[in-house]
Prior knowledge:
By secondary structure, the chain is mainly alpha-helical.
Amino acid sequence: xxxxxxxxxxxxxxxxxxxxxxxxxxxxxxxxxxxxxxxxxxxxxxxxxxxxxxxxxxxxxxxxxxxxxxxxxxxxxxxxxxxxxxxxxxxxxxxxxxxxxxxxxxxxxxxxxxxxxxxxxxxxxxxxxxxxxxxxxxxxxxxxxxxxxxxxxxxxxxxxxxxxxxxxxxxxxxxxxxxxxxxxxxxxxxxxxxxxxxxxxxxxxxxxxxxxxxxxxxxxxxxxxxxxxxxxxxxxxxxxxxxxxxxxxxxxxxxxxxxxxxxxxxxxxxxxxxxxxxxxxxxxxxxxxxxxxxxxxxxxxxxxxxxxxxxxxxxxxxxxxxxxxxxxxxxxxxxxxxxxxxxxxxxxxxxxxxxxxxxxxxxxxxxxxxxxxxxxxxxxxxxxxxxxxxxxxxxxxxxxxxxxxxxxxxxxxxxxxxxxxxxxxxxxxxxxxxxxxxxxxxxxxxxxxxxxxxxxxxxxxxxxxxxxxxxxxxxxxxxxxxxxxxxxxxxxxxxxxxxxxxxxxxxxxxxxxxxxxxxxxxxxxxxxx
Length: 529
């Protein structure tokens, strides 16, 4: 048998795969052209069923392409430079890409035009381009193997190019599902510049907050409720926030289920492809209300399964607004709400006081965060001096906890003085069995946040109690085994928030303890046996 015959037969596989691949590419390119525009009524239910597998299947070609990149990169650094492997992986990547495109095509045509046309088409053609590109990469790999590695740089160009196309198509797919800019919303500024996107693409951390910077009070289902005036515009301040939370995800500029948009008043009044979704003065004839009140197992019910349900109060407010004329500008006072509507409003729309309370709470959280940041550096320095002795009360709290138990007699006034920079953040201190004296106790005068303090078995006397009597947030004070007397503990009567006081083995007698109990009725005084 001649060499030429053998060579000719060996080309049969690559030639066949090339021809087959070209035919598949031609079919994919011709598919949207031959199919035309999506039908108004969508496609049969069976097609809808298969189309909805697109979001599941599309991850397979993405994962396979990533696997190809990893294996090919590994081969670059391998001692075995043979290029006769990797065909199977890129084949499955191309095959799964074709399947994903076909399912995506069916999903696109079954949507009935509910997505933003330009974005949906761009995603469709991006998917087709990706599938065609992976097929070309597969064909290239077949011929590279046939040529014993020659042409491998071209194969790499195809892989890198397909990765770029895949990224763009994925971005458009995410934008269709979650809204435009979903993948780039929090991208670093350099990335946005590279993509030629404005910096405003990133969502500011202060979004969805009121004019004073406070987060609005939440509604019963956890969504933020609007901060409104005492006489709000019903559509703008009450109805629109409900639509934003429960309806906009399917009825907005990007996704128009049933060709119905709810994000603008004029489009809400215009309705969708099935007629009047809103009939002024007649909620019972408004299709949007009819669908909201359908049984849960009805396919036409809104919101669809998996979306946030409207609460009875929200439904009641929407119906009342429509029955009152569905005005864009009418204020609450002019529509004369019933007692039932007032009750629903009280649940969903925070009063001015509630908004102020929420703002105050938000300000307190910020104050705590700032306070924690202010002492972080000092805490890290002191941890080197006192390993495992100093810690924050929790991951978010600025409060500090300190214990000298492991140091005992080696911890005294000099060591306590080193804690001065963070003493105002202390909420709990255990100085038991240390050599801290009245002079050391004096250093605690700035520990105004202290809730728990243990000075048991120290040389503390009545003089040290002058400072402790000023710590109004103390809830637990342990003076066991100290030299305090009746005259000293009298000073503690000012600590009305004290809940536990340990006076076991001190110089305080039973009569004084009884007197102290009368002055501190909410405090448990422990004196041992």
